[in-house]
Amino acid sequence: MRRIKKSLKNRRSQSLPTQNDEIKNKEHLTGNLKENIQKVKEETGNSDDIIVREIRTGKERKLNAALIYTDGLIDNRSIQDFILESLMFDIQDIETDKKPSSKENQLQQLKDSVLAVGDLKDITDYNTLFTSLLSGHVILLLDGYTQGFAIGMKGGKVRGVSEATTESTVRGPKEAYSESLRTNTSLLRRKVNDRNLWLETKKIGTVTKTDVSIAYIKNIANDKVVEEVRQRLDRIEIDGILETGYIEELIQDETYTPFPTIFTTERPDVTAANLLEGRIAIFVDGAPHCLIVPALFVQFFQTADDYYQRADIVTLLRILRFIGFFIALLGPSLYIAITTFHQEMLPTPLLINLAAQREGVPFPAFIEALLMEVTFEILREAGVRMPRTIGQAVSIVGTLVIGTAAVDAGIVSAAMVIVVAITAISSFIVSSFNLSISVRMLRFVFMGLAASFGLFGISIGLLALTLHLCSLRSFGVPYMSPLAPFNMEGQKDVLIRFPRWALFSRPRLINQKNLKREDVSSPKPESQKRK
Amino acid sequence: MKRAIHLFIIMFLLLNLLTGCWNRRELNELAITVGLAIDKSDDEFLVTAQVVNPGQVAAKQGGGQKTPVTTYQEKGSTVFEAIRRMTTRSPRKLFFPHLRIFVISEEIAEEGLGRTLDFISREHELRTDFYIIVAKDTRAENVLEVMTGLEDIPANKLFSSLEASERAWAPTMAVTVDELTTDIVTKGKHPHLTGIQVIGENRRIGGRLENVQEIEPDVKLKYSGMAVFKEDKLIGWLDEEGSKAVNYVQENVISTLGEVPCPEEKGKVAIEVIRTKADLKGRVEDGLPKGTVKIQVEGNVGDVQCKKLDLTKTKTIDDLEKRAEKKIEKLIESTITLAQEEFKLDFFGFGDAIHRSNPDYWKKAEKDWDEKFTDMPIEVEAVVEIRRLGTIGNSPLEKIKD
Description:
The complex is a heterodimer.
Chain A: H1 2-13, H2 19-25, H3 33-43, E1 50-57, E2 63-70, H4 76-93, H5 103-114, E3 120-123, H6 126-134, E4 137-142, E5 148-152, E6 162-163, E7 175-176, H7 181-191, E8 197-204, E9 210-217, H8 223-234, H9 244-251, E10 263-265, H10 268-276, E11 280-284, E12 290-293, H11 311-340, H12 348-358, H13 365-385, H14 391-401, H15 404-408, H16 414-429, H17 433-471, E13 473-474, E14 477-478
Antiparallel strand pairs in A: 1-2, 2-4, 3-5, 4-5, 6-7, 8-9, 9-11, 10-12, 11-12, 13-14
Helix pairs in contact in A: 7-10, 11-16, 11-17, 13-14, 13-16, 13-17
Chain B: H1 2-17, E1 30-41, E2 44-52, H2 54-57, E3 69-76, H3 79-85, E4 93-95, E5 101-105, H4 106-111, H5 114-122, E6 131-135, H6 140-143, H7 154-168, H8 177-185, E7 192-199, E8 220-230, E9 233-238, H9 240-249, E10 256-261, E11 268-285, E12 288-304, H10 314-343, H11 350-357, H12 359-365, H13 369-374, E13 378-388
Parallel strand pairs in B: 1-4, 1-5, 5-6, 6-7, 12-13
Antiparallel strand pairs in B: 1-2, 2-3, 7-8, 8-9, 10-11, 11-12
Helix pairs in contact in B: 9-10, 11-12
């Protein structure tokens, strides 16, 4: 284990090849337009999606200028309306130079009265030029000037906001994040209209230079955790970030655990709710999910619907989810343990029934269970990977394999089919996909323990699991809180979801300041309230 | 990291200490034993085990080819030895936790239960929720070799029918091994066990499927009477009335029936007992032991054969109650007389009551208590209260002319 870790670390310390490029690109723009254009073309390898448009501008059309942009990342109409037209025609009507203009003045005038665009910044070196060029800015270079402009004009085709697919709810907003970072942050802004919602963006990935944003509510989130997130993100040295999963693996507290210590969601409303509890969201450009830290174990049992439906039914559903979690985790292992070690625990008629089913089954219960569970995992994986059009064929074959055919063939007993089926269904009741994956893995461990040690094995396994869970931390917060360390106030949103008016405080371990959420007691008529 | 590895190794080693159940057995390797019978054969024990044939019991098409159970028999100088020797006959090792019924032969009961009880209390595979019965007028092995109709597994029939009759018909008593042992070792108390009889002419048929292919099976199993033990030795049988009286006194009656003759004509009124309470007390007066039994019974009118009985009058009900009280008092008194004169044995447990009320006296009397008991005056008092008349008022017989 240590050797593996060492080798992992060694590879990380090797420097990345692109770093040399960056130093080279720090050089300044020259005053010569032709040279500048030549340089850009060279560096981008004459890629044909880099468009260079040379124009003449100025009062007497004396000034040579060039617009450089990446086709597809830019809104073409806007270039037409607000840059090309302004520079080529509108500039004629504007009274520019009352005084003989210095070069500085001319640039200032261009900015002030010609370019009718919002997002505009100065560029002086090649490094910023390329970054801007390749992230949806139009570059304006002028002959004779060592300074240019980067004009934000993002456009082109992006997927629109669509309905949430993995976290669907009965009641509540349907929208989900899409791949564009800006769309995603705007969805969040629409939920939280407060100046305290702060966004910090940095580029991560020496090659991909992906925008990664941290979002938090300044007066709620714990500054130390925010600082920790910043530092962890800064420490990332990688060539590319393509999905939130990259970030998750690079910043999580503990790699060697089956449990997720970072929460992911595709819903803006879930993000907003978490920010209000003092958590921090991490958006990655190009990923339709956002990461939420710190994550708690119980958080994976909470769904958006839990807070939109009535409290009583939510409580029942939540208890059901916890039961489902344990069935998914222990179902087959309990069956194995009881039928091979503790037959005396079964009522006599049931024992006789089960024994009758097992007459003629060639494998021990453990192998039988393993066979069925592996078959089910194969079917599940096939269902995810294969083209959607063949889905039906697989489900038909699946019902044959995990069904009466297997029983009739005498390979497994009928009771085992039921156990595997209920386990499979229960693993879907765990609302978070991340957590149900860990349950899937641990199930096999528990089956092994049950087959070799019976209920003792299961107890030992559960003990070890509890110890492990209690040792986990997510950004400094104990993973099992508010269960361990126990916090009475926190219990209001674990097994039982208290009514909204009773949930007046934020999770204590996540927040250090601003604990109070609201100032309402039970919504009774004024006359009935106790003073 | 090093520490974690060490911890893991330590935990793994500790895990090996917990292998008390290192006897993994698949369900199809078990011979689920539901009934055990013990007989005397020369100087050895003859043990008969009734083992379930799961395929036949749970078969969807009703089986019919083979019997739902099979029996194995083996001899041994101890019960344990006989059971282990059974593996030479049975393909699987016997599995005892699901034992339902334990039949002891009369012969063994007469010699004393002690030697067999040790094994069944000591063996960890045996639970204590099975019932112990005594085979009456037959060998214990025969009891396990009778096919039963409604319940496929004969031992299950014995188990549930004992439970049902204990609940609805007083003269039987379901006794588990721990209750039996407690009764044997408690001074001033003696155990009782229900008897089982095999009824039918042709006993060979009883063990065949043919027996249950008829509406009225040739060979049947029936509980009857109660065996009276002196400590662990059987000394005699009580008939139905006597068993009922014992159960009344020991507060074992859950529900039963009491009959009272009609006041003015032939016929009877049956009273369904729904709740009873018994108070058995012993005291010492002038150095002599005295006992009282107080029985409180609540009941409903269950069956009326009298024409002239007007049940709508409270006086009639009072009268019925009085008669029922007399009946119960007489029943108990006569059984006490039987105990004092014929058995010369305190099987009601008055000694235990005296022990509790006057421990000093008990210490002196303990040794020859059964002798003292034979002269002990015992007062019996019964209180009967009739609560309901059922779904009709007066009997329709009233309107029928002879």
